[in-house]
Design a protein that fits this description.
alpha/beta, 5-stranded mixed sheet, Helix Hairpins, 17 helices, 47% helix, Rossmann fold, single chain, Heat Shock Protein 90
Amino acid sequence: MAGARRLFTALQWTLSMTAESQKHAADAQWHRGEVQRVLKNLDEAYVRLEHANQALLLAREAAEKAYRFKSEFVVNVSHELRTPLNLIIGFSEMMATAPESYGGVQLPREYRGDIMAIYRSGKHLSDLINDVLDLSQIEAGRMPVHKAPTDLADVVRESADIVRGLVEARGLACEVAVPQQLPPINLDRTRIRQVLLNLLTNATRFTDAGFVRAAVRVATGETGEPEAIVSVQDSGKGIPPEKLSNAFEAFSQLHENQIRDGSGMGLAVSKQFVALHGGRMWIESEVGKGTRVSFSLPICSATPTANWQAASALTRREDAPTVLVLHDDVRALDLLNRYVEGFQFVLAANLDEARAALERTTPLMVLADASWLSQVQLNLNDLQTLTTAPILSLPLPGMRRLGAQLGAADYLTKPVTRESLVTALMRLDKPINKLLIVDNDPHVVRLLARMVKAEWPEAQVVEAFGGSEALDALRAQQPDAVLDAMLLDLLMPDVSGYDVIDAMRGDATLANTPVIIVSARGEEEESAPIHGEVRLDRRGGYSITQMLHMLGGGVGWGEGVVGQTPRP
């Protein structure tokens, strides 16, 4: 009996364990099924994530393409607008300010008033185009900031002096308050001066009595670091509270019935310029008492720093290779940033900045302007001790340098004003009795001739509508009636201004004729022939993009090959 009980107990335990095992097996099978379902869901989620990432990548590429297209469209349309607009501004200025250049015709006061309205509207449209271009460059991340240790007080005083005549002409007091001891600040003098001029001009436009004041003070910023606070205050009509929130939006109009020649973009552009310096801008106003617009600039060490391209988060590539540009003309960085994508360009204007840049980064290549090397008394062997990167020395294009390389007496950028043209001719320090004007646009020739005649009524003006006519006129000179100067456009079809200058250099009888280049903004950027230690020569010159792609072939970051002729 005892044995039977033990056997029965063993059987019960076995049956219980079997049932438990079957339950665990079923549970395990269920869990395996759950794991399989989870893995399947994870696979599906991964596929969806891959599709989402691909869609995001395509959307990013589309957004970048849209930004590039918008930027190119704005630039192209703006340049197309400039040519007729320059003529409108130039002729209306001449008719309003120098009617004697039209044979002594006396226009009625009403006519001259209407012409001045045309002139002011043309200038307003020109300023609007400039603002649109600036804002477009900032949004596309192509607005470089060229910082250097600068006396901010001097910039404020200079800006106030520029607008002082306008302020006082409205019966207002122009006041400046700056501290005596203000440390140098790393800033882009041109951009900050543009901000101040925008603010001072706005304050003047909307103030009928009282004062316009520019002031600077030093304060502790939100981060605990010192900063300079620059403010422009007026005693004008003030801004309604409900409009203050829109103050920095493009094309915003802050005053009721605002018809005061403002584009509505000055504050928007100014705020962006300040942001590129790491500062902020704000506005305070009370209706009937006036407005104060202030902005901050960080006060940091004035040690030399390289000038980095400012880029938006959308367009900037953090992994983009760096190219160090050694040049004393900040326009070189503008050209590179404007026309070449996929690189971060750093500009060093002196040897200290070059050393600082090389300590901070290892560039893919160093582009050294040949004249810069000579100016700092540095040769390529010395430069090679500072970096292991490939070094390329060549004359980089720049407006002043281009004029000097071509042997020009001066270089004027369209739109040319009567004052700038007269100043350039007077710098020749010689009587202007006979002058040759060369441009393929007859209207431009006629406008320049009007400007010359207004200052030198007895001068003989010879007109040439292209390079061939210019060479014929030069060779037709008589010994007793030689040309005193020539105004020359560079980019003309068939025979260009470069061809004319080359022909003059090769003819001893023409080589001494002073040449003043008159060319459109940006044209010299795309057609500057390159001469020097590295020579990439082609009739009409290379564009900056072609040049870099050809040079890039030598170090593996471009598609071209050095010496290969690019397609036009």
